[in-house]
Automatic annotation (TrEMBL):
UniProt cross-references to InterPro entries, sorted A to Z: Mn/Fe_SOD, Mn/Fe_SOD_BS, Mn/Fe_SOD_C, Mn/Fe_SOD_N, Mn/Fe_SOD_N_sf, SOD_C_sf
Domain of life of the organism encoding this protein: Bacteria
Name this protein carries in UniProt: Superoxide dismutase
Residues at which Mn(2+) binds: H65, H115, D201, H205
Domain Manganese/iron superoxide dismutase N-terminal as annotated: residue spans: 41-123
Enzyme class: oxidoreductase
Family named by the database record: Belongs to the iron/manganese superoxide dismutase family.
Keyword Oxidoreductase attributed: yes
Length: 245
């Protein structure tokens, strides 16, 4: 896609708002309280118990992933932006110019933001896409099954650590891509830009305790915990130009 189309789509959103930080109280003693900082850069609540996604994602992985890995990215990101204007800059604006920032901002900012989306687009309830999103997926991929296959293939074939994404490009077309490390489609360093709607972490820390080297099984099981209600809402906002980062 032409990057100016993506930037015009992002430009329709209000600046400074963040993804919501939680859905319901945690019932297993998880340390999931939101730690408010400057201008909405917060460590989000997980929104469900560590064992809520069993048997597909185990409680030990969830606890380590959320409370160690994600919290670590957040702390390093906040340290990297301390004393800079990025303390009061929306994440999508930081990413739009991330090539001009430090590797720490790119890697840890990506790790902080990507995991926020990841937790929110999972739920023990699962569900189905809204009728409008389903129609859009069928329009752009041919069928729901074809979309799932393309997304799963992107996740399974991403070399090394990274992420798989469903995103809306600047022409309001749904597309799938993968990114290395903690990059995402909002960053000016990636070749395929757009608004991220569905994220899947394929770093080994996301699945190795339960699945060992069977990334493919982890990816296949992910579909059992996708929170389509959240994904559908993201798509509706992005499609209407109401997305807020």
């Amino acid at each position: 896609m032409e990057r100016r189309h993506f930037l015009s789509l992002v430009g329709m959103a209000a600046v400074g708002a963040c993804v919501p930080t939680g859905k319901k109280s945690n019932n297993n003693g998880a340390t999931a309280s939101a730690a408010a900082t400057i201008d909405g850069h917060k460590f989000p609540e997980l929104g469900y118990a560590y064992d809520a996604l069993e048997p597909y994602i185990d409680a030990q992985t969830m606890e380590l992933h959320y409370d160690k890995h994600h919290r670590g990215y957040y702390g390093k990101f906040m340290k990297a932006i301390e004393g800079t204007e990025m303390e009061t800059t929306a994440m999508h604006q930081i990413f739009a110019n991330v090539s001009g920032h430090s590797e720490s901002v790119r890697n840890n900012g990506g790790g902080y933001y990507n995991h926020r989306l990841f937790w929110e687009n999972m739920s023990p309830d699962g569900g189905e896409p809204s009728a409008r999103l389903l129609n859009a997926l069928v329009k752009d991929f041919g069928s729901m099954d074809e979309f799932k296959k393309e997304f799963s293939d992107a996740a399974k074939t991403q070399f090394g650590s990274g992420w798989a994404w469903l995103y809306l490009d600047g022409n309001k077309k749904l597309k799938v891509t993968s990114t290395p490390n903690q990059d995402n489609p909002l960053m000016d360093v990636v070749s395929e830009n757009g608004i991220p709607l569905l994220a899947l972490d394929v770093w080994e820390h996301a699945y190795y305790l339960k699945y060992q080297n069977m990334r493919g099984t982890y990816v296949d099981n992910f579909w059992n915990v996708v929170d389509w209600k959240t994904v559908s809402k993201r798509w509706e906002k992005a499609n209407k130009g109401e997305w807020k980062g």
